[in-house]
Every structure is written in structure tokens, then in C-alpha cells.
Specification:
By secondary structure, the protein is mainly beta. It has one helix at residues 47-55; strands at residues 11-22, 28-44, 62-67, 76-80, 83-92, 99-108. It has a 6-stranded antiparallel beta barrel with strand order 1-2-3-6-5-4.
Length: 110
């Protein structure tokens, strides 16, 4: 893997943690718990990664790289404009502890 540099974190994104509250007619309503603005590098997942993730029903469409933060888990989402990514897995970059990889599924685009 190539080294990640701060200059590659070109995309302004929001890390959002929401919780689901009961709504009307058995529906749920999201309530924003916290929101963290940050910068990210966004790469499409390789075909092999995508195919393997679909087979285990945990689709990965994109890898996002951000500066390392504590307490980011699969409960979070990443918002970039009208595009929303659900975090599936969080992985440290062993060779660069100042950055982390978020393996995400794109939920909607535009």
C-alpha cells in the first residue's frame, strides 16, 4: 500500500453518529448524537474486495482514509454532500498509525 499523506485528504466530510428513536407506526426516526467535520481520501474498493464483501453480506464499496480518531465504530456514517457512506469496518494502518481506514458501503449518491 502507498503511504497516505495529509495532502491526499482532499474531501471535506462529516462523521456522524445517530441513534434511532421510536417513531409513528412502528417506524424509527434518526436523532443526531454527534457530528465531527474532518478531511478524507476516498477510494473505490477493488473488484475483488467488493465481490468478497457481497458474498458475506457486508458490502464494501469504498475505502476512506482519515486521521486516526478514537471511538469511531461501525455505528457511524460518513456524509459528503448528499452522499452517505455506512462504516462497515474500521482498520488502523499498521505502517502509519496517524491514519486509519474506514471500509464503507455507499448508501445513496446525489
Amino acid at each position: 500500500m502507498n503511504k497516505i499523506t495529509a495532502g491526499q485528504l482532499r474531501h471535506a466530510v462529516l462523521l456522524r453518529l445517530s441513534r434511532q428513536l421510536p417513531g409513528i407506526d412502528m417506524a424509527t426516526v434518526p436523532e443526531l448524537v454527534t457530528e465531527i467535520p474532518t478531511r478524507a481520501r476516498i477510494d473505490a474498493a477493488s473488484g475483488a474486495v467488493y465481490l468478497g464483501s457481497v458474498q458475506i453480506d457486508s458490502t464494501i464499496t469504498h475505502n476512506l482514509y482519515i486521521r486516526t480518531r478514537r471511538n469511531i465504530t461501525a455505528e457511524w456514517e460518513v456524509h459528503r454532500g448528499s452522499t452517505v457512506y455506512r462504516i462497515r469496518r474500521v482498520a488502523p494502518l499498521n505502517h502509519q498509525p496517524e491514519f486509519m481506514r474506514l471500509e464503507c458501503e455507499e448508501l445513496n449518491h446525489g
